[in-house]
Specification:
Elements lengths: L24 H11 L4 E5 L2 E4 H17 L7 E5 L4 H12 L3 E4 L6 H11 L3 E5 L3 H7 L7 E5 L9 H12 L15 E4 H8 L14 E6 L9 E5 H19 L9 E4 L6 H13 L2 E4 L6 H8 L6 E4 L1 H9 L13 E4 L6 H11 L3 E5 L9 E2 L13 E2 L4 E5 L11 E7 L6 E2 L3 H7 L6 E9 L5 E6 L4 E3 L2 E3 L1 H8 L5 E11 L3 E10 L6 H11 L8 E4 L13 H5 L3
Parallel strand pairs: 1-11, 3-4, 3-5, 4-8, 5-6, 6-7, 10-11, 12-13, 13-14, 25-26
Antiparallel strand pairs: 1-2, 8-9, 9-19, 14-15, 15-16, 17-18, 18-20, 20-21, 22-23, 24-25
């Protein structure tokens, strides 16, 4: 395949990476732990953890997991927000030879039950704040062992204990729960597991690049969520691809270990998870933000020390920009503002650059690709409106419904092949078969166009396309245009049934200016969109439904929510 996009690569970015320099993800972790033992790994609420502490704690917890007698590759669920316990637990599971199953702590009981049953998880590490949800479903899941952690367990002997007490008894943020101990089930505190595990040795598992590292569940936008099988090799490849791509932007730091990455997006989400692994590869520091919805405290965290790599979604960038104190942050060290997880709007990108002087760089990826797929060059000086170029060792083809490549400049389904792409969906052979073309490309469900330089523009998801009088209309285009209208904070477009046109366009708008009227929006659309792309219905809302990472959920708007 002719990789025309390589000619558009920034100078110094490798065209290919080699995951085989490691025999497993565990080797990458352990080499970093030894090399960077005395360096800081994370800071959370101004409490620090070194790489040596991460090494020692994960060794102890991994040995404790092994002592449970779980079979090699057993699935262990992680139901934690961005706390130091997350990295310890994740590293422990991998180093013990087991498989991580990341779980959104805000799941409902129904969603949690599905994921635990589908993955076959026999153990779970959960923050006590969410234990009541687990209580509702545990008897209908394979879970036999529960590890309960308090908010402050790894935040120091004095501050940590006080914080846990305050959360339990003053703020009353831990709903009552009673986990069953029937049929041999066990419930152990995180601290007890660490203590007991430190008394036994961690046995090195027979892990290879082909071993399963994660079952990363998709958002379930088309039904029940599916577990994407990500191997050790997939994750190592994604780390090396990200490293190759970001390196030019971070060159001015000098020693890449001095990089401070902001972890405001949840680490159980593939976007933040992959960049967290990149920090470990570098031996650099991560600033953990457990609750980025508290924008005021988040901004105070940003003021504590220089930061260099800031991944986020469009809605997070928007929320920060709206806060009156955000402009008081020192952005002089910021090297990369990485947008992903959802389409970035030109209006937000323009405002972000005005405030930070660091261009928003948009990329694209999926749970199925370890978040890696395409990205704009990190030396870009402005927002491009595209999702950029395929990253090293990745092939992108634009195909029609029959799996044939379409001509350059024509729209079709974005299909991807590379060492970071999942091996399939867990225990779903038919779904896996449908996901791949005969020539080995994974179908993404995104409709896109590649230009002659290799830059790709997403025009939308197949299922989100609106057909107005026989014309295809893509919501992303509408939302990007309307986001630039004065007075608009956020917007979302969907198709609704229409007797004359088949479908008509309905736009939901969150106002930045309370005086903005339907007439104002309609006139703006008339000036900027051709007739069949103009919305027939405009509805103002105080907020739009979003996923746990801030992605606007059009499906809920279509369902009338």
């Amino acid at each position: 395949m002719d990789r025309t996009w390589l000619a558009s690569y920034p100078s110094g970015v490798a065209h290919d990476i080699d995951p085989r320099q490691y025999h497993s993800l565990n080797q990458l972790l352990e080499e970093s732990f030894r090399r960077n033992a005395q360096r800081p790994f994370s800071v959370c609420m101004e409490r620090w953890m070194s790489y040596q502490q991460l090494d020692e704690l994960s060794t102890a917890l991994g040995a404790w997991f092994q002592r449970l007698g779980l079979e090699p590759g057993a699935r262990i669920a992680i139901m934690l927000p961005n706390l130091p316990q997350f990295a310890v637990t994740m590293s422990a599971i991998l180093r013990a030879g087991f498989t991580c199953v990341n779980v959104n702590p805000l799941y409902t009981a129904r969603e949690l039950q599905h994921q635990l049953k589908d993955s076959g998880a026999t153990a779970i590490v959960v923050l006590e704040n969410f234990a009541h949800t687990l209580e509702e479903v545990i008897l209908d899941t394979p879970v036999r062992h529960v590890v309960l952690t308090g908010l402050g367990d790894l935040l120091g002997p004095w501050y940590g204990r006080w914080l846990t007490y305050a959360v339990r008894h003053l703020a009353k943020m831990v709903p009552a729960y009673r986990l069953p101990l029937t049929d041999g089930r066990t419930v152990t505190t995180f601290r007890r597991a660490l203590s007991d595990g430190s008394a036994v040795a961690l046995k090195a598992p027979a892990t290879t690049l082909d071993s399963i590292a994660f079952l990363q569940y998709t958002g379930g936008t088309t039904g029940l969520s599916k577990g994407a099988i990500l191997t050790h090799g997939n994750v190592v490849a994604a780390i090396l691809q990200a490293e190759a791509w970001f390196s030019p932007a971070l060159a001015r730091i000098g020693d890449v270990r001095d990089t401070n990455s902001i972890a405001a997006l949840p680490l159980y989400h593939i976007f933040a998870l992959t960049l967290g692994f990149l920090a470990i590869r570098w031996g650099s520091c991560i600033t953990l933000v457990p609750n980025p919805r508290d924008i005021g405290k988040f901004i105070e965290t940003l003021k504590q020390r220089p930061f260099h790599l800031f991944p986020g979604v469009n809605t997070l960038f928007n929320a920060l920009l709206l806060h009156p104190h955000f402009r008081s942050v020192d952005f002089s060290s910021l090297c990369v503002s990485q947008a992903g997880g959802m389409a970035a709007s030109e209006g937000t990108a323009k405002h972000w650059f005005e405030v930070t002087r660091c261009p928003m760089i948009e990329g694209w990826g999926m749970s199925e690709t370890c978040a890696i797929g395409t990205n704009n060059p990190v030396n870009a000086s402005s927002f491009s409106g595209t999702i950029g170029l395929p990253l090293p060792s990745i092939l992108i083809a634009i195909k029609d419904d029959d799996g044939n490549d379409v001509p350059t400049g024509a729209s079709g389904e974005i299909c991807i092949k590379g060492p970071n792409v999942m091996t399939g969906y867990y225990q779903q052979a038919e779904e896996t078969a449908r996901a791949f073309t005969v020539d080995g490309f994974m179908r993404t469900g995104d409709i896109g166009i590649m230009d002659e330089q290799g830059y790709i523009r997403i025009v939308d998801r197949k299922k989100d396309m609106i057909i107005v009088s026989g014309f295809n209309v893509y919501p992303n285009e509408l939302e990007n245009v309307i986001s630039l209208c004065d007075g608009v904070l956020e917007c979302a477009a969907i198709g609704v049934q229409d007797a004359k046109q088949g479908e008509a366009i309905k736009v939901y708008v969150v106002r930045k200016d309370p005086t903005l009227s339907e007439e104002d929006v309609a006139k703006y659309c008339a000036r900027n969109l051709t007739g069949y792309k103009q919305p027939k219905h405009i509805e103002f809302r105080d907020e739009l439904p979003k996923s746990n990472v801030g992605k606007i959920l059009r499906r809920e708007l279509r369902a009338g929510k």
